[in-house]
């Protein structure tokens, strides 16, 4: 009850007098009675009836009520509004399509602080789709029968498609949900089942005689499931699924919360890993936050058609099958890691996002950044040998450094003045930069201070809403109890420079070799170099390591006033012949450029047998910085490629991955030029030793299958070696694939090692014939494991047959084809990203944009992803000019992807500038270093 009151107060303060896209806040909901009846039958066009009864409080005298509704047929004449002793007449009903406002005009004013019941009946037909309440389908492997189910996806603004509601996160309320459905189906929702009944729960509004005309079935075929009243929560977290799925219970000793994992009947044997990981992670988070999980149960369910990876609905987390199901016979080790990561991410949301919710989507990062960071801790706890803390940190920071170097990036805490923009910020900035900044805070505050502050924040704002300043206040209060930050600064002062500004700094470090000192300056780093002037400056945590150091030094600070107008002096302990390394533990997302002598000292150590003196994260930072700085002409490519040559001896996955990914950016701009052969020759020399040492494809097995990082090394070096044409690599792939083709009963007997399948499949389909492609397609049709389907889906785009690529692209937007709508974007981007497919994928996009747009209805973010992938392939001004002309003529189809388009255009300009400035020099250097 306290949480509801808190929510009401917060809601009023947020919405008063703000943008026209927000609800006016004149009335506030506190409870919803949602009653629904569905016919899960294509013969009745999936018809449904519903009624929502909302308990409201009027905050001021007002003669209208404004809430949200979309794609619902509302029975205007049946809408009613009443208080305990009065009935109001609804004199007008208006549905505004721009912001989906449903405005109800009343015959007189509501009284301030009085409570009212608003009842709105509605009806319609569900559609195949990926948001709102939608229909999903699958073919049961055993019965061969096509089955249907109803699923929900309400984040960010699609609860209004399920029932009329106040569909903004600030309006928290409790929910009582009652779902009528055919008896052969099962309904699950956020809360446990309270009671089942044969009585029509909607009889007062929708008599069975009316519903039967649509359903065409007797009432005896139906059951109504009523669920317990929920805790206060935002509308986007409401969820329910109506299916004939099966479930398994998790071992009860793993958690005090009842866990069930749901899946298709014929895939229920793939749930055992999730059934153990889920409760173990939840129990760990309860200890970490020192806040008990507030619900009595947690269901997790795998949906055949699902837009995102997963959705954190309170008590009923929905997943893509690839993110929840794991089959040890057909899912790779990397698939297993993905399942653990997504489960941990969604369970972290039960606290960050569900228990405490952002006031408005501008602070989405408070949800997603925290869930992304804390997921690494959850996985680290249940699978300690994977070293998820370091692995995820590196992956996240690398993404941030790449995207946030664009002028067209956006702040972590971003102003959103139109709900259409919300979907655009579900990107690397909100998730991965958010996570990176939270990791940074945990490092400079210390874990004890960090955890205490999080506990206080969660308790103080439980069942309510918060914004980033609320978090800063708790962190500052706790760190001051512990003695304060070394610079005597508040958390807000530090963090606002990271969350309210776009981008990140580059530090220019110049050593004075006659003294043990250096100077530091800071400015924003941009991929297009000096084309954009900015006054941005940051509070930068400096973690500095000198070559002779045997232990880590305390974090020092570069303030947002230091190193800006004049260089900042810094003392250190290195002698003139020893290197100095900044950000050796990657505490924060920034780049560092040194004077030539310090770069050479670092390169000399890395290219010697003492390269492990540089810590793993330090090697990652150096590789990333060197390639990025060379790209923008701040460091010469001789130094960068000399540094990269040490990768021949690197035995740790994270630096190797970083170096190879950095080199792949050069591959991307050279792969359709006459100079690609020079790049491949350089890569053959660089990768061959490591490829052979890790086993490659020649071993025909994973050499160290119990070590995740060893598996990743073998997978990464194999895919790189085959692209670089290392002798024997492609031949081994083709032999393995043809061995599979010649195997008796290939759907049950696949001789290709699990984690090497992605590489082998793609190479074999690229090098093989139509026969190879059709074999892979048939295997995809027959497998019952989503992870295996996913691998084959991507591999099918590797074909070099034009007609096959054209057919595959057509399937991506054709209902009922071999490509599910959730996978359409993956197919199109995979084709566009290949050397040959680029030309056909580009033409397909340009000529079929209207059809693609219709197929992706409500999925503007997916379309934006396709556009960014295309633009990232551009290397000439002619390609960009052609796109800009096309975009000008077709911009209405990309209205929900404007941010992605602007970022893609800038990325294309970055590529074009590199070709003009660096191509000749780099190709010469590649030839020189490949001798």
From TrEMBL:
SUPFAM superfamilies: Leukotriene A4 hydrolase N-terminal domain, Metalloproteases ('zincins'), catalytic domain. One of its GO terms (cellular component) is plasma membrane. Its cofactor is Zn(2+). InterPro entries: Aminopeptidase_N-like_N (IPR045357), Aminopeptidase_N-like_N_sf (IPR042097), ERAP1-like_C_dom (IPR024571), M1_APN-typ (IPR034016), Peptidase_M1 (IPR001930), Peptidase_M1_aminopeptidases (IPR050344), Peptidase_M1_dom (IPR014782), Peptidase_M4/M1_CTD_sf (IPR027268). It is an enzyme of class 3 (hydrolase). It comes from the Eukaryota. GO terms for biological process: peptide catabolic process; proteolysis. The active site is at 346 (proton acceptor). The keyword Membrane applies. CDD domains: M1_APN-Q_like (cd09601). Pfam families: ERAP1_C (PF11838), Peptidase_M1 (PF01433), Peptidase_M1_N (PF17900). GO terms for molecular function: metalloaminopeptidase activity; peptide binding; zinc ion binding. Binds 1 zinc ion per subunit. The keyword Transport does not apply. Residues 579-909 form the ERAP1-like C-terminal domain. Keywords: Aminopeptidase, Cell membrane, Disulfide bond, Glycoprotein, GPI-anchor, Hydrolase, Lipoprotein, Membrane, Metal-binding, Metalloprotease, Protease, Signal, Transmembrane, Transmembrane helix, Zinc. Its EC number is 3.4.11.-. Belongs to the peptidase M1 family. This is Aminopeptidase. It comes from Pieris macdunnoughi.
């Amino acid at each position: 009850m306290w949480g509801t009151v808190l929510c009401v107060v917060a809601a009023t303060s947020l919405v008063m007098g703000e943008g026209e896209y927000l609800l006016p806040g004149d009335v506030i909901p506190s409870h919803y009675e949602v009653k629904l009846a569905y016919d899960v039958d294509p013969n009745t066009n999936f018809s449904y009836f519903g009624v929502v009864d909302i308990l409201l409080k009027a905050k001021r005298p007002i003669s209208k009520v404004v809430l949200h509704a979309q794609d619902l047929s509302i029975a205007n004449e049946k809408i009613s509004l009443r208080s305990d002793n009065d009935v109001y007449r609804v004199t007008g009903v208006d549905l505004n399509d721009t912001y989906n406002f449903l405005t109800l005009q009343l015959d007189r004013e509501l009284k301030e602080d009085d409570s009212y019941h608003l009842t709105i009946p509605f009806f319609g037909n569900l559609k195949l789709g990926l948001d709102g309440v939608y229909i999903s389908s699958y073919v049961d492997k055993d019965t061969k029968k096509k089955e249907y189910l109803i699923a929900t996806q309400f984040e960010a603004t699609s609860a209004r498609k399920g029932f009329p509601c106040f569909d903004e996160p600030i309006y928290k309320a409790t929910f009582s949900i009652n779902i009528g459905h055919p008896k052969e189906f099962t309904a699950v929702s956020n809360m446990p089942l309270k009671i089942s009944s044969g009585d029509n729960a909607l009889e007062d509004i929708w008599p069975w005689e009316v519903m039967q005309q649509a359903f065409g079935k007797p009432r005896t075929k139906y059951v109504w499931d009523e669920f317990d009243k929920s805790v206060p929560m935002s509308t986007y977290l409401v969820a329910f699924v109506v299916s004939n799925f099966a479930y398994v219970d998790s071992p009860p000793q793993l958690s005090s919360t009842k866990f069930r994992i749901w899946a298709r009947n014929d895939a229920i044997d793939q749930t055992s890993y999730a059934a153990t990981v889920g409760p173990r992670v939840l129990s760990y988070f309860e200890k970490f936050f020192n806040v008990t999980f507030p619900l009595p149960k947690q269901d997790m369910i795998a949906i055949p058609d699902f837009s995102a990876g997963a959705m954190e609905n309170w008590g009923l987390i929905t997943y893509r099958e690839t993110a929840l199901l794991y089959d040890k016979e057909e899912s790779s080790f990397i698939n297993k890691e993905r399942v653990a990561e997504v489960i941990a991410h969604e369970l972290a949301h039960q606290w960050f996002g569900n228990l405490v919710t952002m006031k408005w989507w501008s602070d989405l990062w408070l949800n997603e950044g925290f869930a992304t960071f804390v997921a690494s801790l959850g996985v680290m706890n249940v699978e300690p040998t994977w070293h998820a803390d370091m692995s995820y940190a590196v992956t996240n920071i690398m993404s941030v450094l790449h995207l946030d170097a664009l002028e067209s990036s956006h702040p972590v805490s971003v102003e959103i003045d139109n709900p259409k923009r919300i979907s655009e910020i579900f990107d690397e900035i909100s998730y991965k930069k958010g996570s990176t900044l939270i990791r940074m805070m945990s490092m400079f505050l210390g874990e004890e201070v960090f955890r205490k502050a999080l506990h206080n924040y969660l308790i103080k704002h439980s069942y309510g809403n918060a914004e980033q300043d609320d978090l800063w206040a708790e962190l500052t209060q706790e760190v001051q109890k512990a003695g304060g930050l070394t610079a005597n600064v508040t958390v807000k002062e530090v963090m606002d420079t990271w969350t309210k500004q776009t981008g990140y700094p580059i530090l220019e470090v110049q050593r004075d070799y006659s003294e043990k000192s250096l100077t530091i300056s800071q400015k924003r780093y941009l991929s297009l170099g000096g084309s954009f002037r900015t006054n941005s400056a940051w509070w930068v945590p400096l973690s500095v390591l000198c070559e002779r150091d045997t232990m880590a030094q305390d974090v020092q600070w570069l303030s947002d006033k230091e190193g800006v107008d004049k260089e900042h002096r810094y003392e250190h302990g290195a002698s003139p012949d020893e290197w100095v390394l900044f950000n050796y533990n990657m505490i924060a997302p920034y780049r560092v450029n040194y004077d030539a002598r310090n770069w050479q000292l670092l390169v000399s150590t890395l290219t010697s047998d003492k390269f492990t003196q540089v810590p793993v994260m330090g090697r990652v930072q150096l590789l990333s910085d060197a390639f990025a700085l060379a790209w923008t002409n701040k460091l010469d490519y001789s130094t960068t490629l000399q540094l990269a040559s040490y990768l021949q001896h690197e035995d740790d996955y994270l630096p190797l991955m970083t170096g190879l990914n950095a080199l792949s950016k050069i591959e991307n701009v050279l792969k359709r030029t006459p100079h690609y052969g020079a790049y491949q020759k350089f890569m053959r020399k660089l990768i061959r030793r490591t490829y052979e040492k890790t086993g490659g494809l020649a071993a025909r097995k994973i050499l160290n299958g119990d070590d995740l990082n060893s598996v990743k090394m073998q997978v990464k070096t194999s895919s790189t070696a085959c692209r670089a044409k290392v002798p024997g690599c492609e031949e081994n792939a083709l032999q393995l694939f043809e061995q599979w083709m010649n195997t008796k009963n290939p759907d049950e007997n696949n001789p290709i090692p699990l984690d090497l399948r992605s590489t082998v499949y793609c190479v074999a389909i690229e090098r093989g014939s139509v026969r190879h492609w059709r074999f892979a397609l048939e295997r995809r049709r027959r497998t019952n494991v989503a992870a295996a389907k996913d691998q084959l889906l991507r591999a099918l785009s590797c074909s070099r047959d034009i007609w096959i690529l054209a057919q595959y692209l057509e399937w991506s937007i054709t209902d009922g084809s071999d490509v599910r709508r959730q996978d359409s974007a993956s197919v199109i981007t995979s084709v566009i990203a290949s050397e040959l497919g680029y030309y056909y994928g580009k033409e397909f996009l340009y000529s079929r944009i209207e059809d693609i747009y219709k197929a992706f209805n409500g999925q503007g973010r997916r379309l934006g992803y396709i556009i960014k992938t295309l633009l990232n392939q551009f290397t000439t001004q002619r390609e960009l000019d052609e796109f800009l002309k096309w975009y000008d003529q077709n911009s209405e189809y990309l209205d929900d992807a404007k941010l992605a388009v602007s970022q893609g255009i800038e990325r294309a300009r970055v590529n074009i500038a590199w070709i003009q400035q660096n191509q000749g020099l780099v190709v010469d250097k590649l030839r020189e270093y490949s001798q």
